[in-house]
Design brief:
Strand content: under 5%
Mean pLDDT: 84
Low-confidence stretches: 8-12, 37-46, 440-452
Distance between the termini: 34 Å
Number of helices: 16
Shape: globular
Structural class: mainly alpha
Number of strands: 4
Helix content: 55-70%
Length: 452
């Protein structure tokens, strides 16, 4: 369900759309490389990420987009996000009433809301083609910057032993980004855009770009992004041959899958949790998840309040649930568990509805979106959904994957929106006749039957 109606102008051919296209490129550059030092991982003693310059910069971008998108002249552009996302955002704001650190949580949620709003307004005004092209050109510029960093400044572009706690990161490429997993995610999204939306590039340039991006992704050593890139490409390819008339079969398969998952959870949940809680599981993520699950078992309904589990200082619940190295972290390396411990099971359900169920339903059931556009969007959506199983970015301010997640949702929203119907002829009951509306393509005859 979507709140905003289509804008009355052709967004691909006016100055407003061009300015918003530049705003999107600028926003992505800021998110990916511009604020790298401010996005670096912090220890738990940090009360974090409250940099005034960072917040002011995003507010300025937000203001620029409001002016460029002519939002004041067309107020309904403010309603671009779908209703399900508005409900999720509202629940996060409500959770501040029981937040452990409401002042910190307020700043974080304000930034999250501003960025989501900014992305949706930009995409609403620019339209699908311009937004995708601006994103791809920006990512190719980032790829070039990353290679420059690796070649000319390897001490900064490649993880060094002195800067990491995990010795396994040494030698992994990160380019201009603060961490190799961020670089891996950016490369993965670049590959998806090049393959499904890069047809306007010269063939040789497109091929060189794909090879260069794949190689950089490999050198990052980001296993999550490598695996998800392959899986997303496969699912995107399958979408190219997907027919919406098979929706009944899809629904049945989904119901069966969910049912089997519930049965598995009932019989094997405890064993699975024990396995994941072992330090060696998933490069140590199992230990982190065990702490989060322990907290969620005790506070499953409401959680700590939005943004109030990690990086809030000594009041963080992590100090009461573990004495291990997990205390030094700033995320749970699982976006859904981080949502669970902060806004509770209600927030988690709203998150799944807004970010997984609703957009997937639109893509799979829509009959008007082109196959190629749908393939790109479903591949990006699957990547963002899957990435949050081992990394945390969902509903987290300007996290790179979060921004692309919102961009994907915005593109899905405008691409699957029902086109406005042409006005039909007016029927005059007292005469028993139809009268065509101005500019109508059909000219009704006196007996009420249309003539082409």
């Amino acid at each position: 369900m979507m709140l905003a109606a289509p804008l009355p102008v052709d967004a691909n051919h006016d100055l407003s759309a061009k300015l918003c296209g530049w705003a999107l490129a600028g926003l992505l550059l800021i998110v990916i490389v511009g604020l790298g030092p401010l996005q670096a991982q912090k220890t738990m003693l940090s009360t974090g990420d409250g940099n005034i310059f960072r917040q002011a910069l995003y507010i300025l971008v937000f203001g620029f987009v409001i002016v460029s998108a002519k939002a004041l002249q067309t107020p309904r552009i403010f309603l671009s996000p779908p209703l399900t996302l508005w409900i999720l955002i509202a629940w996060c704001w409500i959770s501040l009433s029981w937040s452990l650190e409401p002042s910190i949580a307020f700043r974080r949620l304000l930034l999250t809301t501003i960025i989501i709003w900014t992305v949706f307004m930009i995409v609403e005004r620019t339209g699908y083609e311009r937004a995708v092209r601006a994103a791809l050109l920006t990512l190719l510029a980032v790829l070039l910057i990353n290679y420059v960093m690796v070649v000319l400044f390897p001490h900064a572009g490649i993880h060094q032993a002195r800067e990491v706690l995990d010795a396994g990161l040494v030698g992994d490429w990160k380019g201009a980004l603060p961490q190799k997993n961020f670089a891996g995610a950016v490369c993965a999204i670049t590959i998806l855009l090049l393959i499904f939306a890069g047809g306007w590039l010269q063939p040789y340039l497109r091929l060189i770009s794909i090879i260069a991006t794949v190689f950089f992704l490999y050198k990052t050593g980001s296993k999550t992004s490598l695996a998800l890139t392959f899986g997303s490409l496969v699912l995107g390819g399958l979408y190219l041959s997907y027919d919406p008339k098979f929706r009944a079969l899809l629904i049945s398969a989904t119901v069966i899958t969910v049912g089997l998952a519930v049965l598995f959870g009932q019989f094997y949940w405890k064993d699975a949790i024990y396995t994941l809680s072992q330090g060696s599981a998933l490069t140590g993520r199992g230990t982190i998840w065990g702490v989060l699950i322990s907290y969620a078992n005790d506070h499953w309904l409401l959680g700590t309040g939005y943004g109030s589990f990690w990086n809030i200082g000594v009041n963080s619940p992590v100090y009461y649930y573990t004495s291990t190295w997990v205390r030094l972290l700033g995320t749970g390396h699982n976006g859904y568990l981080d949502i669970l411990v902060t806004v509770g099971v209600i927030g988690l359900l709203l998150t799944v509805l807004a970010l997984v169920v609703a957009p997937l339903s639109r893509l799979l059931w829509n009959r008007t979106i082109s196959r190629r556009s749908g393939a790109l969007l479903i591949s990006m959506l699957i990547f963002c959904i899957g990435h949050n199983f081992t990394e945390s970015s969902v509903m987290d301010r300007d996290a790179i994957v979060q921004v692309f997640f919102m961009m994907t949702l915005a593109l899905i929203t405008i691409s699957t929106r029902r086109p406005p119907e042409a006005p039909g002829p007016l029927y005059f009951a007292w005469t028993g006749r139809f009268k065509p509306l101005p500019n109508s393509r059909l000219a009704p005859s006196q007996d009420g039957e249309s003539k082409a």
